[in-house]
Amino acid sequence: MNKSQLDQRLAGNLQLCAEKYPELESRYGKGIAIYKDGNVESVGRDSRETCYYTVAGPAPTGKPLVWYTVEINEKTQVYTCSCPDWQMKHAPEIGIARFCKHIVAAKLEAKHGQYGLLEALIETGDVPAAEGQHAF
To answer: Average pLDDT, stretch 36-43?
Structure first.
């Protein structure tokens, strides 16, 4: 999958998200933007299979990026973020999880790797293109 195909898949998933979870549409769209801007960094994984990320939210013009800590455990479906949206319980709940834009961006990073790096690795043959996978 190249960058253009990934962009198309992300746009399609945003459309599906809007239809199925309208309360998540805005955060999903902002999470895609954060992911595509490269503002997600994988920090590591612990023995409980929890993955840790730092994710920057958009900053007002001229201000430095604000980085938040995101924890994702796909096995237990426990996702947490240190941002005010998640901490104050404003982020919408889908099933047993709450989704802020930072969690969306981290989940995209977990699924696809770094946005800019992904295409380069596939083009050089270092990473095989994964077909038939969902983007989120």
So the answer is: 90
Torsion angle defined by CA atoms of residues 22, 25, 26 and 32, in that order, rounded to the nearest 10 degrees: 170
123: CB partners within 8 A, 6+ apart: 2
Range of the domain at 43: 3-124
Residue 135 within any structural domain of the chain: no
On whether the pTM is more than 0.85, the answer is no
pLDDT, tens only, 75-101: 888 899 999 999 999 999 888 889 999
Quick check: 107 and 37 in contact, CB under 8 A? Answer: no
Q: Is residue 133 part of a domain?
A: no
Q: Is residue 129 part of a domain?
A: no
Please tell me what DSSP assigns to residue 53.
Answer: E
According to DSSP, residue 23 is labeled G
